[in-house]
C-alpha cells in the first residue's frame, strides 16, 4: 500500500493523481477525470495496481500493489494536481521475503577441523548468515557466497571449518534484515570426524584449561563476595524506600477515592443533550516492547479541544496515565510507572484530534485504556486497547539423551511477550502434537518457555522447534540433526511382546465395543418406545393447553408457548435440529405496554406499533417500550416489521424484568451481562449487542422494510433472530442465562422508523419461509475497521 494525503484535508476526487517510480516518469498508477488511466501504466504493473479511493473526499488516497515482486523494491513518488497547481511527495517501498530453511551438511575433514556447509535459497533482500555453537557463541571466521536468480531472489552458501572437537553442535541461521525474521538449523558433529590431536597438545590444552578455570574461579569468588555485600546494602535501602512508598500510596488512595466520588457527581450532572462524541481506534493498537505506542482519540464533530480537559487512564482504575488541563500537562496527577514516559501529540488539537505517546513500552502497559474529554459540565469518553508484544531470544535446541524408546530433545527460549506458542516439525513440515511445555514469567512480565519432545521414529533425522508471537505473527525457529545411533536399539523379544500385547488389546477392545454396542441398541429401542409414549401424551395435553390459551388471547395478555415437538427438538442439539424446532413454533400475540413506553414514543391504539414523536423533548435519548406480558418458560416467537428510515437507529429482542433502561447508549448498557439480548441498527450498520459489538451481515444492503422473527427458547437459554423475508439467519445468543421473567424489548433512538408486531394469534403451523440453520455470524469482507468496536455517544 502506497498512501498519500493532502493538508489541509480537501477533496481529491476531481484531481489528477499519479504514482511513479522516482527514477523514471513511467506511471505505476494514474487517476484522472474520476477514473483509472490504464493505458499509461508501466507493463510490469499492469493488472497489479488499484486505487484505494474510499477517502478521496477527505484528501487521502493510496495505491495497492498486488503480487509484490522483488523488482518493486525502491523509491516512488505520488503526484497530485488540480488545474495548474501540483504537489508531490516521496515514498520508499521495502520488499522482503523469507526463503527456504537452511540445509546444513558435513562435507568432510579440512585442515585440522571439520568443514560444514550451509545453503538456503529464495530470500530477499540479501540475507545475513550467522554460525553459532550450542551456547549461542558466534563463529566469526567463515566464507559465504550469494547468487541472484532471474526473479531477483538470493541464494547463499556459507562454509565453516570447526576445529574444536568439543563443539558437538553448530547452528547456521539465515536472517532477513528487513523483516527481522530468522530460520536456523543445527547439526551434530560426532567426535570421530575430528582429526586426532597429539598427546602433548592434549596435555597442554588440559593444563591451560585448568589454569583458566582456577583464574575464573578466583575471579567469580571475589565478585560474588562483593555482590553479596552490595546486595545486603541495597536490600536495606530498598526496605527504607518501600516503607516511605507505602505511606505515600495510602495518601494517594485516599485522594483517588475523593476524586472518584467527584467524578461520579460530574457524570450525574452530565445527563444533558449531546454536544460532541469521542471516538477511539476500533482495532487494538499494537506496540513493540521498548518502542513507542500512540493512543489517539478524536471528537465528532471536529471541534477544537485546546481549551478542554483531556485525560487518559487505565480502564480498571481511575489513576491517570496522562492529564491535560488549562493548555498544559498536569504531571502531579500521573501514575508513577508512566512518569517521564508519556507526552501529548497535540499538533491537531484545534481539529479535535489528540493522542498520547508512551515511550519505552513495557509489558505492564498491556491492556485497556480510556480517553476522557470534558468542556464545562459536559464530558465524553471512549475506550482503547493496547496490545504489547515482544520477540525474545531465538530457540536453543539440544539433545538431552535417550528416553523410553526414543531421543529426548529440549527447546528453550526467553524474553517473549505475550505467552508464545511452540511448534515442533519434521523436515517435511509435519507437526508433532505430543510434547510437553512449561512457561515462566519474570519480574518484568516477560515469558520463558521450555518444551520437550521425545522422537521415537529413527527415520526423522531433523526436527525444528519454532517459537511464535501470536500478536505480531513473528516466528523464530531452530532445527537440530539427530544421528541414527542416538536411537535405542529394540530387542527382538521386546518387539514380539509388543506385537502380541497390541493384538490382545485390540481383541479385548473389539469384544468390549461389540458388547457395548449391543447393549446400547437394546437401551435405545427401549428409550424410543418410552419417548413415543410420552410424546403422544404430551401432544394430547398440549392441544388442550393451546385451546385454553386461544380462548384467553382476546385479552392480548400473554405469549403462546410452543407446544408440539418441544421435547423432541430438545433431544438433539445440532443447528439443523434447532432450526427445525423454530420452524415448528407457533406465532404468538405480542402487545405493547404503553405504561413502560418512553415519553417520546407513540404507541398505536391496537398496541402493536410504536414510532417516535414528530418533535422529541430529548433528541439524544434512547426510547424503549416493553411487551405487555412477561415470558417465564417454554418456547415462543413473534415477528416485527421495521420500516426503516435512512438515518434510523433502533434495537429489538428481550430483556430481563427490572433492568435499567436508562443511561448511556452503548454496548456496556444493552448487553447480555446487563440483562439485554438484542440486535439493532446504529451508524447505518447492523449489530448484535455483545461485548464488544458483533457486526452483522445485514449491514451490506439497505432494508427499508425489514421483517424480523424473534425465536425464544427460555429453557435452553437460546434466542435467535431471522430475516423472515428470505429465511436467512441473522444472529443467535446461545447458552444464555435467563433467570426470572423476560419481556419483549423495542427501542428507537432516532430516525423515521416504526416497529410493528405483525404476528397473528395462533399463527400457522409453519413459518412463511424456510429457515436456514443457525451459524456463527461472520465479519463482512471489506467492512470499515471502525465498525469492529462500538462508538460511545452522548448520555441521556
TrEMBL record:
Signal peptide range: none
Localization: Membrane
Residue ranges of the TM segments: 202-221, 495-512
Ranges where the record places region Disordered: 570-595
Alphabetized UniProt keyword annotations: Immunoglobulin domain, Membrane, Metal-binding, Signal, Transmembrane, Transmembrane helix, Zinc, Zinc-finger
Main location: membrane
Domain called B30.2/SPRY: residue spans: 570-764
Record domain Ig-like: where: 1-78, 102-186, 290-371, 395-479
GO terms for MF: signaling receptor binding; zinc ion binding
Name the record gives this protein: Butyrophilin subfamily 1 member A1
The organism of origin for this protein: Bos mutus (wild yak)
Amino acid at each position: 500500500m502506497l498512501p498519500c494525503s493532502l493538508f489541509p484535508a480537501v477533496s481529491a476526487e476531481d484531481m489528477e493523481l499519479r504514482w511513479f517510480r522516482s527514477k523514471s516518469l513511467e506511471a505505476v498508477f494514474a487517476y484522472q477525470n474520476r477514473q483509472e488511466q490504464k493505458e499509461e501504466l508501466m507493463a510490469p504493473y499492469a493488472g497489479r495496481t488499484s486505487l484505494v479511493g474510499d477517502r478521496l473526499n477527505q484528501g487521502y488516497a493510496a495505491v495497492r500493489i498486488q503480487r509484490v515482486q522483488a523488482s518493486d523494491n525502491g523509491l516512488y513518488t505520488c503526484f497530485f494536481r488540480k488545474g495548474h497547481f501540483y504537489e508531490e511527495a516521496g515514498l520508499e517501498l521495502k520488499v522482503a521475503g523469507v526463503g527456504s530453511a537452511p540445509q546444513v551438511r558435513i562435507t568432510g575433514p579440512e585442515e585440522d577441523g571439520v568443514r560444514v556447509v550451509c545453503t538456503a535459497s529464495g530470500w530477499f533482500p540479501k540475507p545475513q548468515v550467522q554460525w553459532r555453537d550450542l551456547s549461542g557463541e558466534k563463529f566469526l571466521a567463515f566464507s559465504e557466497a550469494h547468487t541472484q536468480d532471474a526473479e531477483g531472489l538470493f541464494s547463499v552458501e556459507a562454509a565453516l571449518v570447526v576445529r574444536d572437537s568439543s563443539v558437538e553442535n553448530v547452528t547456521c541461521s539465515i536472517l532477513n534484515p528487513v523483516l527481522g525474521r530468522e530460520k536456523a538449523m543445527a547439526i551434530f558433529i560426532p567426535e570421530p570426524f575430528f582429526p586426532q590431536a597429539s598427546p602433548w597438545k592434549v596435555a597442554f590444552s588440559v593444563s591451560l584449561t585448568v589454569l583458566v578455570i582456577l583464574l575464573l574461579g578466583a575471579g567469580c569468588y571475589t565478585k560474588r563476595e562483593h555482590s553479596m555485600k552490595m546486595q545486603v546494602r541495597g536490600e536495606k535501602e530498598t526496605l527504607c524506600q518501600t516503607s516511605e512508598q507505602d505511606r505515600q500510596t495510602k495518601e494517594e488512595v485516599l485522594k483517588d477515592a475523593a476524586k472518584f466520588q467527584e467524578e461520579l457527581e460530574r457524570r450525574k450532572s452530565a445527563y444533558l443533550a449531546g454536544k460532541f462524541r469521542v471516538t477511539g481506534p476500533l482495532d487494538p493498537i499494537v506496540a513493540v516492547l521498548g518502542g513507542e505506542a500512540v493512543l489517539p482519540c478524536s471528537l465528532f464533530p471536529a471541534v477544537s479541544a485546546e481549551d478542554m480537559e483531556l485525560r487518559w487512564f487505565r480502564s480498571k482504575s481511575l489513576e491517570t496515565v496522562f492529564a491535560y488541563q488549562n493548555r498544559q500537562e498536569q504531571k502531579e496527577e500521573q501514575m508513577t510507572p508512566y512518569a517521564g514516559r508519556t507526552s501529548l501529540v497535540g499538533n491537531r488539537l484545534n481539529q479535535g484530534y489528540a493522542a498520547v505517546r508512551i515511550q519505552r513500552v513495557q509489558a505492564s502497559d498491556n491492556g485497556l485504556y480510556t480517553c476522557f474529554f470534558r468542556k464545562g459540565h459536559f464530558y465524553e469518553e471512549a475506550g482503547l486497547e493496547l496490545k504489547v508484544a515482544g520477540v525474545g531470544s531465538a530457540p536453543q535446541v539440544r539433545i538431552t539423551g535417550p528416553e523410553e524408546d526414543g531421543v529426548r530433545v529440549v527447546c528453550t527460549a526467553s524474553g517473549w511477550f505475550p505467552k508464545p506458542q511452540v511448534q515442533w516439525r519434521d523436515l517435511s513440515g509435519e507437526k508433532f502434537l505430543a510434547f510437553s511445555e512449561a512457561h515462566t514469567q519474570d519480574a518484568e512480565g516477560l515469558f520463558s518457555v521450555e518444551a520437550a519432545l521425545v522422537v521415537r521414529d529413527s527415520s526423522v533425522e531433523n526436527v525444528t522447534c519454532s517459537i511464535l508471537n501470536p500478536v505480531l505473527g513473528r516466528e523464530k525457529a531452530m532445527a537440530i540433526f539427530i544421528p541414527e545411533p542416538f536411537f535405542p536399539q529394540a530387542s527382538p523379544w521386546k518387539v514380539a511382546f509388543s506385537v502380541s500385547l497390541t493384538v490382545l488389546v485390540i481383541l479385548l477392545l473389539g469384544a468390549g465395543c461389540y458388547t457395548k454396542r449391543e447393549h446400547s441398541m437394546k437401551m435405545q429401542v427401549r428409550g424410543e418406545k418410552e419417548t413415543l409414549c410420552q410424546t403422544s401424551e404430551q401432544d394430547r395435553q398440549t392441544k388442550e393447553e393451546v385451546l385454553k390459551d386461544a380462548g384467553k388471547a382476546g385479552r392480548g395478555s400473554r405469549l403462546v408457548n410452543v407446544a408440539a415437538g418441544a421435547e423432541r427438538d430438545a433431544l438433539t442439539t445440532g443447528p439443523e435440529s434447532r432450526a427445525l424446532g423454530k420452524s415448528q413454533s407457533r406465532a404468538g400475540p405480542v402487545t405493547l405496554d404503553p405504561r413502560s413506553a418512553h415519553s417520546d414514543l407513540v404507541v398505536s391504539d391496537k398496541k402493536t406499533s410504536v414510532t417516535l414523536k414528530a418533535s422529541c423533548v430529548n433528541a439524544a435519548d434512547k426510547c424503549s417500550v416493553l411487551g405487555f406480558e412477561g415470558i417465564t418458560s417454554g418456547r415462543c416467537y413473534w415477528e416485527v416489521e421495521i420500516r426503516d428510515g435512512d438515518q434510523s437507529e433502533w434495537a429489538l429482542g428481550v430483556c430481563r424484568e427490572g433492568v435499567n433502561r436508562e443511561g448511556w447508549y452503548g454496548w456496556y448498557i444493552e448487553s447480555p451481562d446487563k440483562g439485554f439480548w438484542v440486535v439493532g441498527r446504529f451508524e447505518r450498520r447492523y449489530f448484535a449487542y455483545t461485548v464488544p459489538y458483533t457486526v452483522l451481515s445485514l449491514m451490506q444492503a439497505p432494508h427499508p422494510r425489514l421483517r424480523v422473527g424473534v425465536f425464544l427458547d427460555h429453557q435452553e437459554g437460546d434466542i435467535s433472530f431471522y430475516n423472515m423475508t428470505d429465511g436467512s439467519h441473522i444472529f443467535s445468543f446461545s447458552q444464555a442465562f435467563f433467570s426470572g421473567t423476560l419481556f419483549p424489548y423495542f427501542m428507537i433512538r432516532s430516525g423515521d422508523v416504526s416497529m410493528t408486531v405483525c404476528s397473528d394469534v395462533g399463527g400457522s403451523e409453519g413459518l412463511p419461509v424456510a429457515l436456514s440453520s443457525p451459524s456463527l455470524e461472520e465479519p463482512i469482507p471489506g467492512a470499515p475497521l471502525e465498525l469492529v468496536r462500538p462508538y460511545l455517544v452522548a448520555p441521556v
